[in-house]
Amino acid sequence: MTAEGGPARAARPALVPFPVVDEIARHCLAEEEPESIHIEVRLPGRPDPARLRRAFTEALRRHPRARVRQAPGPWYRRRYWWELTEAPEPEVDVVTVPAPEPEALERARERCLASAPPLSASPPIRLELVGDPERPGGTALFLTVNHTPLDALSSLRVLATAAELYGGRAGAPAATPVRAAPGGRAAAPGPPLWTPSARVARGTPSGHPGNGMLVADLAVPRRPPGAAYTVNDRLMVATALMIARWNQEQGAPPRPIRITMPVDDRPRGTDMPLGNGTRLVEVPFTPAELASGERAAAARDPDAMDELLRRTADRTRALKAVPRPQLGYGAALLTAPVVPVAWRAAVTRGLRRAAAPWTSTALLSNIGRTPYALDFGDAGRADALWFSAPARMPRGLSVTTASTAGRLHLALRWSKALLARKDGARLLELFEDYLDATDGGPG
Question: Could you tell me the pTM of the whole model?
Fold first, then answer.
C-alpha cells in the first residue's frame, strides 16, 4: 500500500532510446533474412545443464543491457525505446538442451540462422547445449542473438560472465586494442567514392530464403617480425582476392571491391558497454591492385604480395585512426527524432535500396585472439570459437574470424538468394588458397 492507502504501483522498466545503430537495424529487419548472430563455442567436456542455466541467468542479471525488449508504442512515436527489464528470471527459457540427433552441429547452426530471438521478450539471446558428435564427451554451446540490440563481443561478454560463474574463477580479458596513428607511408588512394562497388557474383542459389554457412578450422596466419602489416591485413587481402577470383570465374567484369570492417575500441572487462559498439570502415581495392595480387598469388611472388599487404596496412591503419560516427554522418541525420519513427523507417529502407550499388562488397569481422578464457571449470576451457554476422542482401556475404587455442576459426556466411552451398565451398577453397599465398613475404 502507498502512504495514502492506495494500492502500490508496480515500478515501470527503465527506458533507453534506441542508439543510431539499433534504429537503423530495426528499420531494415526482414523476416526472410533474420538479423541473427551465431556464436559457437566448443568445450572438451559437458557442463551440467542446470548449473549452466543458473550461471547464464545470473550473467544476464549482471548485464542489464542484455535484458532488453522493445517497448510498445503508437505509430506516431518519434523514437523506439528499449525497456531494461528488472525481473530476476528471463521472460522466456533462454537455455535449451535439444535431443541428440544425426548431424547435431549442422542442425544447430541452421537454427541459429533460421530466426532471431524476438525483440518483444527479454532477453534477445538463446543458448543451446549440444553434444559434440565429432568428439566423444565434448560439447558445443550455440548462442543465437538478435543483432538489433547486441553485437558479437557484447554477447561474448555475457557468455564469459556465465563461464566465470559456472567455473568459479575469473578469466582476465585480453587488453583493449590500441589504435596507432597513421605513420610511415601515406595510404595509397583507393577507387573514387562515386564508383559503384563490385557485387559478389550470383552463383546457383536454391531460391530458399535465409542464410547459409560453412565453418573452417585453419592455422593462424603468421606475422613476420617487424612486418608492416597485421594478421587482419592478411585476412583482408585474402577476402578481396577470393571475391575477385570468384567474380572472374562467373564472368563478371572487374570492379572495385570494398570490404566493410568493424572497429571496436571498447574495454573487454566487466565495465565493457554492451550493445552495438563497433564503428564501420570500408577498405577499398582497385581492379589494378586485385589483378596484381592475383598474379602475385599465382606466381607465389613474395615481393609483389608484400607490396599489396603494405598498401592494405597503410589504408586500414589510416581508416581506423580517423574518428567518425559508427555508421557515418548520414545515419545520425536519418535517426534524428523530428518526425514519427515509422516515417523515418520508410525513408531509410528506400535509401538503402537506392544506395545498393554503392554498398560494400562484403563484410570481414575479425575479433583476433578470443578476448576471454571461457573456462567452464569441470567442462573445460573453450578450444574453438566461431561466430558469424548476418549476410543480408545487397551485400550478401560475411567472413568472420577468431583465434582460439592457437587456431583460426573462420565462418563464411552468405545469403541463399545469392549463393548455394557448393558456391560457399568454392569461396572457402579460394580463401584458404589466397590466405596461404599471403604468407612468405619478406616483412
Answer: 0.92
Sign of the C-alpha dihedral computed for residues 289, 291, 297 and 301 taken in this order: negative
What is the distance, to the nearest Å, from the Cα of residue 305 to the centroid of all Cα atoms in its chain? 28
Give which of 344, 334, 354 is closest to 394, Cα–Cα.
354
42 touches 138 (CB < 8 A)? yes
- Within 10 A of 201 (CB to CB), how many other CB atoms are there? 17
Separation between Cα atoms, residue 229 and residue 260, nearest integer Å = 18
Q: What is the layout of strands, in order, in the sheet containing 36-43?
A: 95-96, 125-131, 139-146, 36-43, 384-388
Report H helices in 37-102: 49-62
329-371 tens-digit pLDDT: 778 888 888 899 999 999 999 999 998 899 999 999 999 999 9
pLDDT in tens, 192-249: 777 889 999 999 987 788 999 999 999 999 888 888 899 999 999 999 999 999 999 9
The string of DSSP codes covering 281-348 is: EEEEE-HHHHHHHHHHHHHT-HHHHHHHHHHHHHHHHHHHHS---TT-HHHHHHT-TTS-HHHHHHHH
Whether 41 contacts 384, CB under 8 Å: yes
Q: Tell me the three state secondary structure of residue 21.
A: helix
DSSP 336-396: -TTS-HHHHHHHHHHHHHHTGGGS-SEEEEEEEE-SS--B-GGG-B--EEEEE----TTT-
Give the bridge partners for 408, in sequence order: 218, 403
**Sign of the dihedral defined by the CA atoms of residues 429, 430, 434, 435, in that order:** negative
Contact 277, 153 (CB under 8 A): yes
Give me 124's grid cell: 534477445
Phi-psi domain of 150 (left: phi exceeds 0; alpha: psi -120 through 50; beta: other)? beta
Where on the phi/psi map is residue 275: left (φ > 0), alpha (ψ -120 to 50), or beta? left
- Is the preceding omega at residue 224 within 30 degrees of 0, hence cis? no
403-419 b/e (C-beta count within 10 Å ≥ 16 → b): bbeebbbbbbbbbbbbb
CATH superfamily of 16-437: Nonribosomal peptide synthetase, condensation domain (3.30.559.30)
8 A C-beta contact, residue 182 and residue 318: yes
Q: Domain segments of the chain: what residues?
A: 16-437
